[in-house]
Amino acid sequence: VITFKLQPSFSAESESEREREMVGPQRPQIVLFGSSIVQLSFSNGGWGAILSDVYARKADIVLRGYYGWNSRRALQVLDQVFPKDASVQPDLVIVYFGGNDSMGPHSSGLGPHVPLQEYVENMRKIANHLKSLSNTTRIIFLSCPPVDEVRLRENTSTIFSELVRTNELCQRYSEACIELCQEINVKVVDLWTAFQKRDDWLTACFTDGVHLSAEGSKIVVQEILKALKEAEWTPSLHWKSMPTEFSEDSPYDLVYSDGKTTLNPSDWTFHREIQWD
User: Staple 49 to which of 35, 42, 134, 152, CB 3.0 to 4.6 Å?
Assistant: First the structure.
């Protein structure tokens, strides 16, 4: 006979206690929220993984990415992903939706397509919700990057029906996102333009024509860090302006060549392929 011991349910008080017992110290929190460009951002040398390295000992990168989602689905879960009554609110939310919204409509009425004006209003609602979380929660939107239409047509599985992605649609949704951000005073990264500054973007920036390769992710990181450096936010969320956790000198650090002093490695970055600004 197998018996199971039921665990007691947690009250609001015990939930709060468990939050206090989570791994610490409490660091600034950067949440990545979006569709597959976000979910896969720790794959293939992705931009989420790079940011986690850049912000090591400075901030926690929290992944909230959902393969195939559009802005409609984002709105359905917005209160669950970002509850207004949470005891700790994110310091920065980086949001990407639009690639799936911009796909051509399916004849059945099903699928991820969202009409352009509805997409804009959905993104406005997302921004307004995030702004309401706290006075110090900052926001960056990412606009739609271009796609490799030829590779998409060649690689699209036959399990999909009427799958339409074009650069004309991506550009329209990218421009609409940028225009909205300018209107509501939200920082935006123009990935549509940033990718095409590279001559070989079609071959270098994607794994399958739409999802990002390591080279594509480097562009995303460069543009995000540029936006953070330019932002006049107090406190600054640019990695070089943020304190390093446990950065004090220690006699337990590696010993310098003089045999008498130690070297503090807290801010060493020589391991990085790119010395990010």
Answer: 42
Residues 6+ apart with CB under 8 A from 231: 138, 187, 237, 238
- Give the integer Cα–Cα distance in Å for 260 and 262: 7
Residue 160: pLDDT band (50, 70, 90) is: low
* Two structure tokens written together for 262: 């130690």
Residue 118 burial (CB < 10 Å; 0-12/13-18/19+)? Answer: middle
Q: CA 188, 71, 103: angle at the middle one, nearest 5?
A: 95
Residues designated as active site: 35, 208, 211
What is the distance between the alpha carbons of residues 266 and 33, in angstroms, rounded to a whole number? 29
Contacts of 220 (CB under 8 A, 6+ apart): 47, 142, 189, 191, 194, 212
- Helix axis angle, 116-131 relative to 71-81, nearest 10°? 10
Sign, CA torsion 201/227/72/37: positive
Q: Partners of 95 in the beta sheet?
A: 33, 141
Contacts of 66 (CB under 8 A, 6+ apart): 34, 35, 36, 38, 39, 73, 74
Q: Which residue has the tokens 């807290």?
A: 266
The average pLDDT across 166-177 equals 96
Mean pLDDT of 124-148: 97
Distance CA 169, CA 149 (A): 11
Phi, psi values for residue 35, rounded to 5°: -90, -150
Considering Cα of 267, then 241, then 90, then 219, what sign does the dihedral take?
negative
